[in-house]
Amino acid sequence: MPKLGWVKFRAGRSLDGETLRSATLSREGRHWFLSVLVDDGRQTPETHASPGSAVGVDRGVAVAVATSGGELIDSQFVAPGERRRGIALQRKLSRCAKRSTNRDKTRAALAAVRARERRRRLDFAAQVAHRLAVANAVVVLEDLKITQMTKSAKGTIESPGRNVAAKSGLNRAILSKGWHQFALALASAARYTGTTVVKVPAAYTSQRCSACGHVDPKSRESQAVFRCTHCPHHEHADVNAAKNILAAGLAVTACEDQSRPAGRARSPKQEPAGNREELLLQPTTAAPAA
Ligand SMILES: [Zn+2]
């Protein structure tokens, strides 16, 4: 590798017969990871295996992901014991003397707990994204930026939130992070299946009735229940939102010209590299294929 010379690593799988494009070195705690980008020669299919299939996905408040098909996909990323351990470590950290060895140790232990949670989140996002991309030619998501401003941690009248200001920031960070990872995983999975990913503004998707189209904040009976004030329609609030997202996405795809290549996400922004160091193995102008 440039600057480092020869680096020994343990391969997660065989790289025989694949063209290496670049390698990314990252560190997590005491461990170093080498991610190798390879060109596997696979092309994004022109058409999806099941054309005409479409799904809307809502980032749920009550559950992690809700689909317009009525599916509620949820996962716990932290076991109760791990949560307790995380809190205990945090307390311990605050009592540690500054610049002490114990403080470093506690910090490393806390980082390990957080890293495990982060990996589970990533795994969950990748699995759900793969499942949705395989089953659907079109997947519609709410656009993140707008949602960030509209969701709140205020809670409901029955169960008002505590520490609203602090929590809203935290919620936003956690939820938006998971959602961003999910959107990235979906864009990646879509390149293998030919799925089109559409992003729509999230405004009113949680307040609009998916049956009659009536918009009323009062229809949102609770965090989990949507009961229309205009018609007899009622269902899970996140599923109702997912249906609205699907309808908005289909409206977008219907009026757009079809010349765009299939499977290309609408906003192909790359994730910021963060603290990773990108090392290009060979100067190549070819765009990295899926
Ligand atoms: Zn209605």
Can you describe this structure?
The protein is of the alpha+beta class and 290 residues long. The chain folds into two domains: 1-44 and 277-290, no CATH class; 50-77 and 119-263, Nucleotidyltransferase, domain 5 (2-Layer Sandwich). It contains five helices and ten strands; from the N terminus they run E-E-E-E-E-H-H-E-H-H-E-E-E-H-E. The protein has helices at 80-95, 101-135, 144-150, 164-193, 237-254, and strands at residues 19-28, 31-39, 54-59, 65-67, 72-73, 138-142, 196-200, 225-227, 234-236, 277-280. Strand 1 and strand 2 form a beta hairpin. Helix 1 (80-95) runs antiparallel to helix 2 and helix 2 packs across helix 4 (164-193). The radius of gyration is 22 Å and the shape is flat. It starts with 18 loop residues before the first strand and ends in a 10-residue tail after the last strand. Zinc ion binds at residues 209, 211-212, 214, 228, 230-231, 233.
Classify the helix fraction into a percent range. Answer: 25-40%
The biggest sheet amounts to: 5 strands, mixed
Bound molecules: zinc ion
Would you tell me the overall average pLDDT?
Answer: 80
Protein name: IS605 family transposase OrfB
Domain Probable transposase IS891/IS1136/IS1341: 43-152
Domain Cas12f1-like TNB: 179-245
GO molecular function: DNA binding
